[in-house]
Amino acid sequence: MATALEAAFSVFPGSPLFRQRLLTLNPVTSLKLQFSPPSLSQSSIHFSPLLTCNGSGLSSFPPRFSVQDMALEADADAGETSEENVKRKLYVANLPWSLSVVDIKKLFGECGTVKDVEIIKQKDGRSKGFAFVTMASGQEAQDVVDKFDSHEVSGRIIRVDFAKRFKRPSPNPPPPVPLAHKLYVSNLAWKARSNHLRELFSENFNPISSRVVFENASSRSAGYGFVSFATREEAEAALSALDGKELMGRPLRLKFSERNVIESSNEKEGEDGSSQVQPES
Predict the structure, then answer these.
(1) Could you give the dihedral angle defined by the CA atoms of residues 168, 108, 127 and 95, in that order, rounded to the nearest 10 degrees?
(2) Residue 47 domain flag
């Protein structure tokens, strides 16, 4: 009987008055524990047990709890814990290379309890010169900032601040693409190649690139190409001087290209610096 009552108490931890009443009952020959099937819904789970003793007239005492309520409480606790962790975690930079975890704990221990120290290291195990330190409370973390920020340690001025204020630096933007001023050269002889264009334009100017376009199917010259210059002024001068000039028996027709330098850099290179693109109208 005592074992059965202990089992009942473990399942239904009733009030002290209920325990006293149950234990002072006359000995009974049986103890019946009856559970109604649990009902499961989206918002909560209910257990409605019924405890009866022969002739005792005890009423049921159904325990009840809400899964939804428990989830909300857990989320709130997690949020508070996360916020508290942010307030306790410090970022420490410009540390001496020789400073160890023990050294940092001893140093910051002057302001409270150091819970954790993480020194960021390189692949070879050497310190990168910064670390993350977690104190026992937000106030202790603030005390460390107040006392040790801009403090000299082994000849170096360390920086201490709350870790949340230090975000990873954004990657460096790619270098700007140098602007090129490109001339469209048409009416080329079929045997003309990029080196022929370069030689012609290099007599009086400084082109930065030249290319002849080839047809995709036959791999024959399409009869036009491009010559690029670093400045618009030089491109204009080359256009004025060489428009109509003969190359390999054919007069060249020049105009400014509508394609920019990015498009030209993506063109498919052919032999002798040639490329395969669509002609300009």
Answers:
(1) 80
(2) yes
Is residue 185 domain-shared with residue 272, that is, in the same domain?
Answer: yes
How many CA atoms lie within 13 Å of 178's alpha carbon, on the beta-carbon side? 9
Nearest to 228 by CA among 187, 190, 267, 189: 267
Domain that holds residue 258: 181-276
Which CATH number goes with the domain that contains 240?
3.30.70.330
Report for 63-67, 173-177, 276-280: range of highest mean pLDDT: 173-177
Q: How many structural domains does the chain have?
A: 3
Overall size of the chain counted in residues: 281
- Indicate whether 270 pLDDT > 50: no
In a domain, 126, yes or no: yes
Residues 109 and 35 placed together within one structural domain of the fold: no
Q: What angle do CA 139, 142, 91 make, to 5 degrees?
A: 125
Residue range 78-113, pLDDT digits in tens: 555 556 666 899 999 999 989 999 999 999 999 999
- Based on the domain organization, do 21 and 46 belong to the same domain? yes
pTM confidence score: 0.34
DSSP 34-62: EEPPPEE-SS-EE--EEEEETTT-PPP--
Q: Are residues 187 and 261 in the same domain?
A: yes
Sheet hosting strand 209-214, strand order edge to edge: 253-256, 181-186, 221-229, 209-214, 275-276, 268-269
The mean per-residue pLDDT over the stretch 27-54 comes to 47
Amino acid at residue number 82 = S
Alpha-carbon gap, residue 117 to 88, rounded angstroms: 12
The verdict on 253 and 190 lying in the same domain is yes
